[in-house]
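Request:
You are asked to prepare a plain-text protein record giving the amino acid sequence and the backbone structure tokens, at your earliest convenience.
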Amino acid sequence: MESSDSRCKQQISWLWPMTDPDANLQTVLIARMAGGDVDSKPVDEEEPRNPDETAADGSRKPVVLVTNADGIGSHGLTFLVEALVREEQCDVHVCAPDSDKSVSGHSITLHQTVSATSADLKGATAFEVSGSAADCVSLALSGSLFSWSKPTLVISGVNKGSNCCGHNIFYSGAVAGAREALMCGVPSLVISLNWKKEKSQESDFKDAVDVCLPLINVAIRDIEKGIFPRNCLLNIEIPTAPCANQGFKLTRQSLWRYVSNWQAVSASRHPTAGQFMSMHQSLGIQLAQLGRDASAAGAARRVGAQRKIVEIESVAEAGKPEQREAVKKYFRLEFLEKEQEPKVEEDSDFRALANGFIAVTPLYLDLQVQPEIQASASDWLAAVLKETEEAPEADV
């Protein structure tokens, strides 16, 4: 049977501009895949992250933290950890949610207890956490869970489903895990497989890891040399058939997004929802009845200092107060693909993935708007303030 490695020999066709100051990664990758190497300007290596692990040559191994949003038991994370351990190029640590936390965005757990339980992942030090992907990375980098606080690289993935659909990266728990690392000053990658329910299978995750492993190894090397792209995380999107990919392509984040579709859910279609509603309605009616009885029969009393009489302070009118029944409705959210694709640029992640490329998109933390948007907002605010100042004072 043909091995996965031999089936996944892809053409490395980075379209990373050679004039880009961060182009070294692709240069090294191409050279390595061709069996050679590339001279690079010497850069002082950073202090090794893990004081205990050493490589075969006696040098200290870099530490790689793996997380995800699909949960620690997902196939994507399992195959990724197995590959990293097998390569023996780094010390692998895992901190991932104990259950599926997909589409959780950059949520964090505040003022509540989070548990971290040791997990069995051969060759790696692993914990499963009762929190989101962002929680996992934040905890791992805090120095409270592991003996280190700053790994060489954080990898989030391999995620089940694409994260390249424009605005949807803000919903992604996997992207949030990588973003949390970047916020803490640690280089990060997020890797996703464009999973299709009718076409994809479990082995595709292993193939996705195989095609990305050369990039991961070179990323670790370049980080150690100080020549990895700075101030950004790399969002790596792998096509549905990983072994048939057209190569790597540097892309831009598209603005394409799914359509949000909220569907009403009836109690008759979902009996548990009806039971939940009936139970609370029944409890509410009982409490209301008790309130009416107490109001009518046992109103608060007070004894007058001069006149020793009992005064009724409050009695419900005729024992029949106005009753309002709460209305509770149930809904379910689904994302729908648009029937017609919007016009997207050829260098967008969405277009590259659709054309079979492995899309590599730098994502930044900088939220500064473009100059023309800043100018437009400035003009609008100035006009509002001027209008407010010129408006006559309201009569008191």
